[in-house]
Amino acid sequence: MENTTHKLLIIVGSVREGRFGPVVGSWVAEQARAHGGFEVDVVDLADIDLPLALPAASPKHAKDGYPRPAGMAALTSALHDADAIVIVTPEYNHSYPASLKAAIDWHFTQWTAKPVAFVSYGGAAGGRHAVLHLENVLTELHAVTVRDGLSFPNYFTAWQDGRPLDPGAPGYAKTLLDQLSWWANTLRAGREAAPYPG
């Protein structure tokens, strides 16, 4: 397969006061840039207008005519342009934040036939419950979820100076990014060859 650079969107999913997500997102972006296979963009949902009330029409059927708030334009554009997506999520009450659900529900075709990987953090489970729920939701949107994600249990003691203390973390990140790059290449070629039937 041709070795190309893919547009990678990293979404920081938590908007909670005092959140740790930007620290994780910054480290993931650093790993992605060092990988060399990606042009990296980071969107922090704390900077996006994400109302919970949705229009009556479905974004699946309305497509480009879906009436989104002007403050959501940066997210919509980044999702549309992305060849691959990494979602950085904490775990709240055994699931993912409402901000992420709103960001997902305001879009549909922007996720379709694109690979999505997960980097989670939390307590003992490291955010894995959140990821399991996200995998179910994104499958409904015809996204392709990457199996090998990154999980940081007890992040409050497992990070120092903006970096994970586990010396294996960069290697795990490379595995995630290698798989994401493969899927990005494969799915982009498929989208260019024929419209996705869904």
- Continuous helix count: 7
Q: Describe the biggest sheet?
A: 6 strands, parallel
Q: Shape, please? A: globular
Question: What percentage of residues falls in helices of 4 or more residues?
Answer: 25-40%
Radius of gyration (CA) equals 16 Å
Report the strand count.
8
Low-confidence stretches: none
Distance between the termini: 25 Å
The topology string of helices and strands comes to EHEHHEHEHEEHEEH
Q: What class do helices, strands and sheet pairing give?
A: alpha/beta
**Average predicted local confidence, pLDDT:** 96
Strand content: 15-25%
Structural write-up:
With 198 residues, this protein is an alpha/beta fold. Helix content is 39%, strand content 19%. It has 7 helices and 8 strands. The strands form 2 sheets. Strands 1, 2, 3, 4, 5 and 6 form a 6-stranded parallel sheet that branches. A two-stranded antiparallel ribbon has the order 7-8. Helix 1 (21-35) crosses helix 7. The chain is globular and about 45 Å long. It starts with 5 loop residues before the first strand and ends in a 5-residue tail after the last helix. The model has no long low-confidence stretch (mean pLDDT 96).
